């Protein structure tokens, strides 16, 4: 949460006063060379004299422990000094500290205050976060339409998470008239920046033909991108596509691979289908013990049909085999699905 701000110290575009430019530049050169201790020595006197860019950079260094022992409370102090001078980076950073209660007591209303100040200066990440605060009603009265306004401002500046959120708002008609085509537009922009949620949702839009012509192959493409990032819903859907031969050559073994990846994240429907694959020898050798195990696990995770099939599998097993399946299910769940063989 704080670590993502680290790069800003190396790319700070704010200009210090002419009188202090030489010392500021010496600190910046040191920071760019990875010599944060020297940067700290150069910037501390400037910050104490009221130089806003130096104050922000000190906040960043204390927040991340660069050239100094990490100290979130001191980071907040320096962020605040720079923020009060109108430095948008610092206003956003101070909002983050209040949002998460880092270095200061958690306070949604104060987070909103500082996000707003940065957002009104056009700071895209603050606009996105302010949208979240309005959407969730944290620190401000819940207001979907205002959330859309701030998401849009950030999205138009290329903030991927805001693009995804704006797509969701259009998809479900929250704070804006429902418009699947516009939802697809924003999902695509976020998906192309690597947001797994957006990649999955874009896959669903192609899968169902909402806002775009139905296209199984494109659904597979986007499911795969999200699945490769570990997105369990997408892994399950990709398994379904391989299982049915939709948008890709039918391949039960590959379907099993993707079902298993989702199952190992606790995805109950994937656990249930994986049990079916073992019970019916689709893509894997028939194994009623393993089928029983996955049905048992899926049922424990709330899959409503799993108990019935577990019982059917039990009718084909000896008491000893059932005991083995039950033991394996316990081990699998206790290991958070890392020891399921």
Task: Provide a concise account of the structure shown.
This protein is mostly helical. The chain has helices spanning 21-32, 36-48, 52-64, 72-83, 88-100, 108-119, 124-136, 144-155, 160-172, 180-192, 196-208, 216-227, 232-244, 252-263, 268-280, 288-300, 306-314, 319-334. The protein has 18 helices and no strands.
- Secondary structural class: mainly alpha
Work out the number of β strands: 0
How much of the residues is beta strand, in percent? under 5%
**Span of the ends, CA to CA:** 36 Å
Helix fraction bin: 55-70%
**Mean pLDDT, rounded to whole units?**
93
> How large is the count of helical segments?
18
Give me the Rg, rounded: 26 Å
The major β-sheet equals: none
What is the H/E string?
HHHHHHHHHHHHHHHHHH
What does this protein look like?
The protein is mainly alpha-helical and 341 residues long. The chain has a domain at 251-341. It is built from 18 helices and no strands. It is elongated and about 80 Å long. Mean pLDDT is 93; it is low at 1-16.
List the helices and strands and how they pair.
Blueprint (H helix, E strand, L loop, with lengths): L20 H12 L3 H13 L3 H13 L7 H12 L4 H13 L7 H12 L4 H13 L7 H12 L4 H13 L7 H13 L3 H13 L7 H12 L4 H13 L7 H12 L4 H13 L7 H13 L5 H9 L4 H16 L7
Helix pairs in contact: 1-2, 2-3, 3-4, 4-5, 5-6, 6-7, 7-8, 8-9, 9-10, 10-11, 11-12, 12-13, 13-14, 14-15, 15-16, 16-17, 16-18
